[in-house]
Write a structure and sequence with these properties.
Layout lengths: L4 H17 L11 H17 L4 E5 L6 E5 L8 E7 L19 E3 L2 E3 L7 H13 L10 E7 L8 H8 L8 E5 L10 E6 L1 E10 L5 E2 H4 L6 H12 L20 H9 L4 H9 L12 H7 L2 E9 L9 E2 L2 E10 L5 H15 L5 E10 L2 E2 L5 H13 L5 E5 L6 H4 L6 E4 L14 E3 H20 L1 E3 L5 E3 L4
Parallel strand pairs: 3-6, 3-7, 7-17, 8-16
Antiparallel strand pairs: 1-2, 2-6, 4-5, 5-18, 8-15, 9-13, 9-14, 10-12, 11-13, 19-20
Helix pairs in contact: 1-3, 3-13, 11-13
């Protein structure tokens, strides 16, 4: 790896990253469909500029998938790199200190929507690839890239592609850089991801909005009905009242619990810097790590209904809707939880209200076997650059494509360069630039180490060696 690359090219790299971050590729909003395509085209041209002989935009119903292949290097392993170029909506805009799509550096941190999730991390891998190219433009190993534009909105184009063409997932390892360190100076690899069940619950209580003076006291109120229903789905204690939900949970192993108990954790600092609240809620008889990594959740993301404009309008709303989700843990299945949620809602619905549950998208939780040699090789890279091996933890979030990335038998490495306080999905999302530069060095080391720790079996297949 070119040790002078980062210092020499830092200004150019920042300009390139800012170009990508400035594209408002919000996949959930149809108004930004053209922006999502612009982001995909930016990546296509960038990969061509890095010398990839194969670079395609794969079209379908949704935002295009970017597929690229580096130069073919017989006898060397193949690494499949995944990332996503789409981002969350930036709302609420008034809480941003600088515009979400005008990347701004403050105190060594780059602020923009997508800075950490996932454009900045995707970019880190592209620059690590560039840093390891030799004088003839060849990387140290075979590299395939697959970047999607629907991770944040539940699209299925990339999953459909890999199911239809499973050979694209054939690799010696798959690398997903969409996660964070456990804490500053503590890199992490993830042994499990939670799944997701995202739904809308809609309520109608009358044909039209009604005058609250004429009908108040007798007419049912859709928002009140919805709020009461939601409050019954989750108790104040944090217990989720969806039948069969907890019975299916595979609890963490004794080894996992031991590892978690040994992690440094400052509860008050966690509340102040990460949660930015006054207290923690949820099941008080379970540890924080169990609540965020190993137990299902139920969250209300938004409620729509009635009058919310300036001034006053005294109506009894006829309809209301809430967007909700459940995060799922190993042992649970998205489709079954969706059915159980619908059943629970319908049992709670009053006879005089029309209530409907619409499942929008979701995916099953994932457990990752971290015993493959590639994980030890990544540990060696982290140790060389950061001075510490990665700790093994779980993630509270979801990356639906992970099962398809590993369907060909490749171990899926879930790691990243983010920090816990990066503000994912929130105003003022950021990426510490020191994390970016360190990440480029780390993954450059990983690519080169992965290339050297191979041997050819008698059948001619390439295999990864464990560290000596």
């Amino acid at each position: 790896m070119d040790t002078t690359f980062i210092d020499r090219e830092q200004g150019r790299m920042l300009r390139e990253l800012n170009e990508l971050l400035a594209i408002p590729s919000v996949s959930a909003l149809p108004a930004h469909a053209a922006d999502c395509r612009r982001a995909a085209e930016w990546l296509r041209e960038h990969l061509r500029g890095l010398g990839c002989p194969v670079v395609d935009l794969i079209e379908g119903r949704g935002h295009p998938v970017v597929w690229a292949e580096g130069p073919k290097l017989p006898g060397l392993p193949t690494l499949l790199i995944y990332g996503h170029y789409d981002v969350q909506p930036p709302d609420p805009l008034e809480e941003w200190k600088s515009p979400p799509f005008a990347p701004t550096i403050r105190d060594g941190k780059l602020y923009a929507r997508g800075a950490s999730d996932d454009k900045g991390q995707l970019f880190c891998l592209l620059k690590a690839y560039e840093a390891t190219l030799d004088g003839d433009g060849r990387p140290p190993l075979n590299m395939h890239f697959i970047f999607e534009g629907e991770e944040e909105s539940g699209g299925t184009l990339v999953a459909d592609l890999l199911r239809r063409e499973p050979k694209r997932s054939t690799a010696d390892a798959a690398l997903v850089c969409d996660m964070s360190y456990y804490a500053p100076g503590w890199p992490a690899v993830y042994t499990a991801l939670r799944g997701l069940c995202y739904a809308e619950i809609s309520v109608r209580t009358s044909e039209r909005d009604l005058h609250s003076g004429t009908y108040g006291g007798v007419a049912p109120n859709a928002i009140e009905t919805l709020v009461r229903l939601l409050s019954q789905l989750k108790a104040e204690s944090g217990e989720i009242r969806v039948p069969n939900l907890y019975e299916a949970v595979d609890p963490p192993t004794a080894a996992e619990l031991k590892t978690w108990n040994e992690l440094p954790f400052d509860r008050e600092e966690f509340i102040r810097r990460e949660v930015t609240a006054k207290a923690l809620t949820g099941l008080q008889n379970r540890s924080v790590f169990e609540r965020v990594w190993a137990l299902p959740t139920f969250e209300i993301h938004g409620i729509k209904g009635g009058f919310i404009g300036e001034g006053a309008k005294t109506v009894i709303p006829a309809q209301a809707m809430a967007k909700v989700s459940l995060r799922l843990v190993p042992g649970q299945e998205y489709e079954k939880v969706g059915r159980d949620l619908e059943r629970a809602v319908m049992q709670l619905a009053p006879a005089w209200a029309d209530v409907k549950v619409t499942l929008l998208h979701g995916g099953d939780p994932v457990q990752v076997d971290v015993d493959a040699p590639a994980f030890e090789i990544l540990d060696e890279a982290f140790e060389r650059v950061v001075g510490r091996k990665a700790v093994q933890i779980r993630a509270g979030g979801s990356i639906p494509i992970v099962p398809e990335l590993g369907q060909g038998g490749a171990p899926v490495i879930l790691t990243g360069i983010g920090l816990p306080d990066d503000g994912l999905h929130s105003p003022n999302e950021k990426l510490d630039l020191d994390q970016l530069w360190t990440g480029i060095r780390t993954f450059g080391e990983f690519f080169e180490l992965l290339a050297t720790k191979v041997y050819s079996s008698s059948s001619g297949e390439t295999r990864l060696m464990g560290p000596e």
